[in-house]
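@channel sequence for tomorrow's demo:
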Amino acid sequence: MLCLEIDPDTQRLLEMIRWLGREHMRPLGLEADRQHRPIPADHPFFQLVWDLGIGRQGWGDEGDSKEERRSARRGVVLAEEMSYWDRGVAVALPGPGLGGPPVSLLGTPEQKERFLGLFARSERPCWGAFAMTEPNAGSDVAAIRTRAYRDGDHWV
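structure tokens (generated this afternoon):
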């Protein structure tokens, strides 16, 4: 059964995002567009969202439990709300970015600490990066071709 109701925690977060969008994201996005340049990394807005917890932890990319699935749906709803106000500002927010979900879902505890721990501990905003490339394909994900073969007890 698909539940389309928004739980009270998500509703509270949506209201916060709407406030951020109205008061900060849309004006910042418009200003960046007018000036033809991105928002500087040291802009006070990024510290504000960091202090609110945005970017410090995921909104649901951590696994298979009922609560984690609910949290994943929450992440989609909140990302959509941020995109309404300004997609450019939304993708510029601090945090692990596209690299976070694969590490959260598939990483070992050591990898999670190594690659995501900084986001939970830092007092200042920080950003992660994600890159995908392969010989003969570059960053064209559809053209990536991978093969694996067994070499004794290991796969190459």
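heads up for whoever presents: The chain has a mean pLDDT of 86.
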